[in-house]
Structures are given as C-alpha cells and as structure tokens.
UniProtKB/TrEMBL annotation:
Protein's recorded name: Sulfide:quinone oxidoreductase
Keywords: FAD, Flavoprotein, Oxidoreductase, Quinone, Transit peptide
Reported cofactor(s): FAD
GO biological process, one term: sulfide oxidation, using sulfide:quinone oxidoreductase
Highest taxon listed in the record's lineage: Bacteria
Record domain FAD/NAD(P)-binding: where: 153-266
Length: 562
C-alpha cells in the first residue's frame, strides 16, 4: 500500500487523513470505487484542491463527491447528507478530511437512527477514533454537554503556529509545573516568513518546514484535533468529535483563514496557467519558476483589503521578481502592474520614499483601490472591482502572463461565530494586556485578535512573553504586569541583497530595534538582508519557539494603561 493511513470502519467505508493525487492509483488498486472529500479547499497551506483530486479520480474511473465541513462544525443536516451520499455511491468508499475525524464524526451521526450508541462507539474505536463525545451528543439530543470534561488543564492554548508554540514555551520557562496543552490538528509547522524568499529563489521550500511533534515544548500536551466551539461560561472548549476540554486559563491564537474561494475561479487555476501565490507552501516554488521563465509580457501582483498577514508580502513578491528581471536585462519587456485594494503603498509613511524609489526602478504601475474578484486562468484574464472614493464601483478586466495572488483573509470560522469575537469577527482583547475584554481568564495573541497591529511573526514574538507574564501573574492572583506596544516588523525585500526594515507599533510609531547608525530602517540595507536571510530563521526555530526571548523581554505595564 501507499502512505495513505486507511482506517476501515465498515465493509463499505474507510476514512483517512488528507490524501494526494499520487495516492489515487493505489486506492484504485486496493479496490476503492468512490471518494468523499469532507475538507474545505484552502484549509491548509499544503492542501490539494478537491478539483485536483476529483479530476485525477475520475480519470481512474473513481467517483468523487465534495461534502466540505468546516472543522468542528458537523451539523445533523451534514450527517444526513453524508449518509445519503454514502448509500448512493458504489463501495468501497474512502472519506477523508484533515485527520479523518470529521469523516468518522459524520458517519457516527448518520448512524444515530440505525445503530445503538454502543455499536457506534465500538465500531469507531476499532477504527482508531474516540467518538465518546459524539455519542454524548447523540444521547443529549444533538447538543454537546459541557458539564463534564474528557480532560482538564491549567492552561489550554488553541493553535500551534508561531504564536501558540512561543507562548507555550514562554509559560513553561516561567512556571515549569504548569499543566499546559496545545490544541492543533496539523502535523506540519511552517516558517511562513520564509515563503517570500522561496518565491524569490533564495530559500528552498523544504527548509521552511518542521514536524509539529518536534516543536511542541517538553512537558506540554499536544491534542491533535480541531476546535468546534468555545463555551467560556463553562471554561470549556469543544473539539472536533465533540470531546470537551476544561481549562483554568485559555489562550487563543489560531492564525488566519486564507479565503481562496472568495475570488471566483481562483481555486480552479492555482498552480497553473501562470497563477501563483507565496501564501501557499506548495505554490511559492511555482512563483520562482514563473519568474525565471518570464522574459516578456505582463506580470500582475495583487493585494487584497486589510487586514492580511504580513502586509508587505504582496509587494515583496513584486520587488524580488522585478530585481531578477532587472538583473537579467529583460525588465524593459515586462509590464509590472501592482493592483492594491487599498489607497496607499505602505501604511507607515516613513518607509514610503525608499519603496517608491524601487517602484520607479522596476517601472511598476501602482493601481490603488483595485480588488481582485475573479480570474480565468486558461484565458489569462483577471477582473478587479475598482472602488475609488466618492466614485461608483466599476469592474475592469486585466490580461496577464503571470499573476501573483494574495487571497482575502479573515479570522477562522470557528472564531468568527464564537462568543470571543467582536462584531467584525476578531477576538476582542485589550490592546495593551491582550486579555479578553469580557472573559478575564482568556487571552489572545497572533493574527486572529483585534489589536490594531501588523499581523506578523515578529509581532507574535513580542506578544508571547507578554501574554505569558500576564497569565502567570493572574494565576498568582495579581493584576496584569506587562503591556504590548503594537510592535511589528516587516522586512521589505526590495532587491536581492537589500531590505527596508520596517519596524513600527500602534499608530505607525517607529520602533527600531537597532541604532540608526547600525540599521536605518527607512533605507535599503545589506545588513538588514543578512538579518532576514541568515539570522531570523534560527532566531525563530531556536529562540522564539524554544522560549528564548531574545530581544523580546516584556515591557512593564504602565499604571495608566487600560
């Protein structure tokens, strides 16, 4: 067999974690006749789309069905649909999602009126899944009870990205006896700041990857599951599969959702037809492939409405591409168009002179208020909604030979519908202490909270010790002791070998880490490039994620801070 982790459930159904196109011939040879995908497109940075899977499956004579379920959001109606689909398909059938949990949950709920809860529990346990929470939901009339927990911890951290692992390490370094758990279903952890460099031909994609298990701090439990819901009044988190975790304190840092599907036609053409993005692990190498192969034509770079992670990344791709074409002597034959949904090139004015100089160097045309809404890869055409102030919205068509797309970004679905969210869907925190405004035993950091700072890994590096200090103080019965000043950093790769090192806090206040004589962040610098290329990756892997707070010591809370 292949590397597919098949879990037989019944004679007709098996479930598995995410499969790839390369697995389909093996599944065909194993006798499978149909596939059900329960994972929405765009959920992970290394995930093939359903269309890719379906096309390959159909070429092998396999039937394929798409029943996408947001992690932790399995409804009774979804289960009914799954049961009907399973009944209608020829067997054996493979259903898959990220880990297989959604698929086995759908099956369990679909059998509620066919099998006893004891039979459901025994069948799913034999397949390697604990559906005790689902059985309780069935017995409780469709709602997961939170009066008792499957497990409890002093501190539960939702999300094992840069923010989650860093804050776990910072907590354990301060209070080693603290009982901490991290909840995250992903097997792989990515150094996402490196993907711009992959797209520019500087880093190898494989060097931006580690297994999640190798990074979870020693003494911290890893719960490999997705969150379905928060019940903060009961100090409970409900997981995929309806399991319940209780907590003393909760830290929420799940990152952002990249909404690829919000742009019509995009998912169908990503990774082909000249359509790429450095915001996906498997596509960043394609960016570099396109850049190397281009000698003439039009290259389009897009930027969606804010907020997005690393607001400078859309133009970083432009600069590194333009620099390559400049060095090869083909820039004169390439029309670079930057389509920016906003009205400024960069939000902090001190850095604009240097950036505008590079826009001129690469003869790039900047089009403000242009938001990508649709794309047709095979015809090499894209459509933008143009929303200039005091002007009616118009739709314009732009042809391209290459297009680098940055998708719209939101808080994850399970955050936006939760009691933790503000009206706009972001986790509602005090911007100084990062404590939730309503629930005193909940904190947030990273990209999903609503403090008005840049959403960067550098911001999370500073936030993690602050949250750790304040959580430990709260456990000791004290008031918050540390505050966040909104620090974020955006190393703008304006050419190979030079960077404009933008560092700023709330309100665009300049917050440089180095004396101006060492690195003047407003000017392109070779030393800043060295920092990005050689120093920051080990700082990330060996410092930030290990709880070594290099240049990140918490600032004491001013008594006047709210």
């Amino acid at each position: 067999m292949s590397d597919v982790d098949l879990k037989p459930v019944t004679a007709k159904l098996s479930v598995s974690p995410q499969i790839g196109v390369e697995d389909l011939p093996v599944l065909k040879d194993a006798g499978f006749r149909a596939i059900i995908c329960n994972r929405p497109d765009g959920e992970g940075p290394d995930q093939p789309t359903f269309d890719e899977i379906a096309s390959a499956a159909q070429s092998l004579g396999l039937e394929a069905r798409y029943l996408p379920i947001v992690a932790g959001k399995v409804s009774d109606e979804d289960a009914i649909d799954f049961g009907r689909t399973l009944d209608a398909l020829p067997g054996p059938v493979l259903a898959y999602c990220r880990t297989g949990t959604r698929s086995i949950t759908l099956w369990s709920l679909s059998q509620a009126d066919r099998l006893s809860v004891a039979d459901i529990l025994a069948t799913t346990q034999a397949a390697g899944y604990d559906m005790g929470g689902v059985v309780r939901r069935i017995a409780n009339g469709g709602r997961t009870p939170t009066d008792r927990a499957d497990v409890s911890y002093d501190v539960v951290i939702v999300g094992a990205g840069a923010a989650g692992i860093a804050v776990a390490s910072s907590l354990k370094s301060r209070k080693p006896d603290l009982d901490v758990a991290i909840v995250d279903p992903a097997d792989i952890h990515y150094y996402q700041p490196g993907w711009t460099m992959v797209g520019g031909g500087i880093f190898d994609a494989k060097d931006t990857v580690r297994t999640m298990g190798s990074l979870i701090p020693k003494g911290v439990a890893w719960i490999k599951a997705a969150v379905a819901a928060f019940e903060p009044k009961d100090n409970a988190v409900i997981l995929d599969g309806c399991r319940v975790i209780k907590y003393g304190r909760l830290i929420v840092c799940p990152g952002l959702k990249l909404d690829w599907n919000k742009i019509e036609g995009l998912v169908d053409t990503l990774g082909k037809n000249g359509v790429t993005s450095n915001y996906r692990y498997d596509l960043a190498p394609y960016t570099w492939q396109l850049v190397q192969g281009m000698t003439k034509g039009r290259a389009v770079f897009t930027q969606p409405p804010m907020p997005i992670k690393c607001a400078g990344a859309p133009q970083k791709a432009l600069y590194l591409s333009g620099d390559h074409w400049f060095r090869r002597g083909v820039l004169k034959d390439i029309d670079i168009q930057f389509m920016n949904a906003g009205g400024v090139l960069f939000g902090v004015k001190d850095y604009l002179p240097a950036l505008e100089e590079y826009i001129r160097k690469y003869s790039a045309t900047v089009n403000f208020f242009h938001n990508l809404v649709a794309i047709d890869g095979p015809s090499r055409k894209a459509w933008f909604a143009v929303s200039k102030p005091d002007t009616a919205v118009e739709k314009v068509e732009v042809e391209f030979d290459m297009i680098h797309v940055v998708p719209p970004q939101t808080a994850p679905d399970f955050i936006r519908v939760s009691p933790l969210a503000d009206a706009a869907g972001w986790i509602d925190v005090d911007q100084a202490t990062l404590r939730h405004k309503t629930y005193d035993n909940i904190w947030s950091l990273g990209d999903a909270m609503n403090a008005p700072n840049a959403k960067t890994a550098a911001a999370a590096r500073i936030q993690a010790p602050i949250v750790a200090e304040n959580v430990v103080a709260d456990i000791a019965g004290k008031a918050p002791v540390a505050q966040y000043n909104g620090y974020g950093s955006c190393p703008l790769t304006v050419e190979r070998g030079k960077i404009v090192l933008a560092e700023f806090g709330y309100g665009g206040t300049m917050l440089p880490s180095f004396p101006k004589a060492v690195i003047d962040g407003t000017k392109p610098s070779r030393l800043a490039w060295l920092l990005k290329e050689k120093i920051l990756p080990p700082v990330y892997w060996q410092g930030m994620l290990k709880g070594r707070e290099w240049m990140a010591k918490p600032t004491p809370l001013r008594t006047s801070a709210k």
